Amino acid sequence: MSDKRPTPHIVILGGGFGGLYAAKALKRAEARVTIVDRRNFHLFQPLLYQVATAALNPSDIAYPIRSVVARQENTNVILGEATAIDVDRKIVKLTDSEVAYDYLIVATGATHSYFSHPEWARTAPGLKTIEDALEIRRRVLLAFEAAERETDRDAQLAWLTFVIVGGGPTGVELAGALSEIARQTMLRDFRRINPSSARVILIEGKDRVLPTYPPDLSQKAEAQLRALGVEVMTNAMVTSLDEHSVKVGEMTIATRTVLWAAGVQASPLARTIGAPLDRAGRVLVNDDLTLPNHPEVFVIGDLASLKVPVPGVAPAAIQEGVHAARNIERLVRGEKTLPFHYRDKGSLATIGRAAAVAAFGRLHVSGFFAWFAWLAVHIFFLIGFRNRVLVILQWAWAYVTYQRGARLITGR
Amino acid sequence: MSDKRPTPHIVILGGGFGGLYAAKALKRAEARVTIVDRRNFHLFQPLLYQVATAALNPSDIAYPIRSVVARQENTNVILGEATAIDVDRKIVKLTDSEVAYDYLIVATGATHSYFSHPEWARTAPGLKTIEDALEIRRRVLLAFEAAERETDRDAQLAWLTFVIVGGGPTGVELAGALSEIARQTMLRDFRRINPSSARVILIEGKDRVLPTYPPDLSQKAEAQLRALGVEVMTNAMVTSLDEHSVKVGEMTIATRTVLWAAGVQASPLARTIGAPLDRAGRVLVNDDLTLPNHPEVFVIGDLASLKVPVPGVAPAAIQEGVHAARNIERLVRGEKTLPFHYRDKGSLATIGRAAAVAAFGRLHVSGFFAWFAWLAVHIFFLIGFRNRVLVILQWAWAYVTYQRGARLITGR
């Protein structure tokens, strides 16, 4: 006979890496767990650029959240959008209802930022959602079709010029993949244009691509990008853009396709918590990932700002999700929470076919071995995705044949 | 030294089964061939219901037309929408340009018909395009989510009631697959609702489902549908429908999801040809598939109406496409055209897991063997699709686990 306390209700906002791994870590907790997400699936975001570049299908990298926790009896899923958090009443407001919590994990992530130019969003789509990826795919494929039909030489060149703003991992991956599409995949598809004459231009504001990586790997990445035919511009700021051109300093590039891979800003939900935010709109949290004065509220992933900076990557969000879950279990048992320490397992960025860079502590690798490491790590983390084997097969097929099977222009 | 005639220009409108097989049959023709389609891909329509029911991905059943003819040097592809045909000037008008032809094959197919109720289209989507399929998938998955959140019992039941109008092959396939989703796939996904309590109702105006099949197979199909939990209503006409209910005669069914699988009408392009049309809007053609008084214009597939009726199925369109191509080659050589004769290779309709009906002449089969025949035929005709092996693997996986991997709510 135990004098049981009432079972606590743990609410997790967001089914991304942070939220999902927090929920999984609470599998055996004596608690009711509720995951709230506005989408019904978890997205394996590191491979989203593969959807944008027609190599993978949405369902290869997205998996219903309900399926992930189907056998986790203590866990419930609500499809809904959190619009505000009332930390005093311990309530999350959804569009059309409210959810009360005893403990809360906020993991709603970040979206792209156009800095002081929100009007650029229409012209230069970013890459955060499945819809973003399909829109980018649509625009890229339509650009080649339009070039094939265009008779004016200058207009044709503008359709065959692709500008990617932002030289971080996403920008580098997109640039490499686009160059491969133009130079390999599309080779025989057109009669009037030569797709391999397409220009792919990567624009980075800092003095090197992958600015968060060690400088020697940035150099290697730039060399690999150039080998794939990408034009890399560093120390270059976009000053204006519209549907026909991008202005970089004094230079005007005629282009019909601009993709945005620069800047992130925290989910607007952060502003409703009423806690101090950093410049990127992220919530400043204690070392144990809790909100100041609210030990029952945890903020993790891209939404959290710690005193010791943590990179905005999936492994960090996963570690924080698991740590928040463990701390909640400690609180339930009446123990003290523990501070979070990020364990850097290394950085990996892929550039293209057998091209990548990797930093594992002091060990820096580039080229085929880095690419193979990238592949192994991503396949390993697709665990839980029923289609891991299918994704591997599609990759193998694409690797051997240079084909990209999902070259469909859909939507609108 | 040959006194060559100028190379004729053969224009094919539509990259469906008819148009694509016509183009392939012209591979070695001494002609310029141009395929015009408003989509950049060929769609394997017999499996579209698998996308609508979350078993397959769009790119599993859609393949870029350019890739199909990439190595066919005499063939060009234009992404564009034909708006009118001027048979006197031998010109096809596109939205923003014109294409002149020497020979024309019109293969723009059919779309669904709401008879005298075009306003039903919004409430009851049909299944002709990839976008239709994704919209149906979205509505079905959202209905279960809404039921899970709904507290009012009647409202919950309406969300869990799915009505399919039309008992032809598409309606039967959709009904069977929906019932399987509710009773197997979703089994563990929800906490408040029991998905297997969902009602799937199939409504057919004639006195039996699959009315174009032999009566004994209609009976078998109905029995198999009932075994899967589908409620079959025959001799039943929908008299009105809105977002909350469907009226069938005097009976009102409360439902939030109505799918339309009844009636087809020919592509509106038929009306611009200036030739007599039948009641379904199809062009009345000569037995050699040409337009009366225009031996250089061929109409095939769902758009053509022959004196001896031909069913609106893929094998018929393929046979007509190849026949039109051969007739054009005969005309180019100065020979006479030959009349078209449809060879019926049999009819196959699948109902669900190991359930199907098949008629090969006098041989009627149902159950597992019919299903296996259906599987074999469809896999065989996916030839040319790079992902045939992947599709088989996905089917095998879905068969063993009852999972449907593409359960993503995307769009809008």
Defining traits:
homodimer, 412 residues, alpha/beta, 6-stranded mixed sheet, 4-stranded parallel sheet, 11 helices, 31% helix, elongated
Secondary-structure blueprint:
Two copies of one chain form a homodimer.
Chain A: E1 9-13, H1 17-25, E2 32-37, E3 41-43, H2 48-52, H3 58-61, E4 62-64, H4 65-68, E5 75-79, E6 82-86, E7 91-94, E8 98-100, E9 103-106, E10 110-112, H5 130-149, H6 153-159, E11 161-165, H7 169-185, E12 199-203, H8 215-227, E13 230-233, E14 238-241, E15 245-248, E16 251-254, E17 257-260, E18 264-266, E19 283-284, E20 290-291, E21 294-299, E22 304-305, H9 314-332, E23 347-352, E24 355-360, E25 363-366, H10 368-381, H11 388-401
Parallel strand pairs in A: 1-2, 1-9, 2-5, 9-21, 11-12, 11-17, 12-13, 19-22
Antiparallel strand pairs in A: 3-4, 6-7, 7-8, 10-18, 14-15, 15-16, 20-21, 23-24, 24-25
Helix pairs in contact in A: 1-9, 5-6
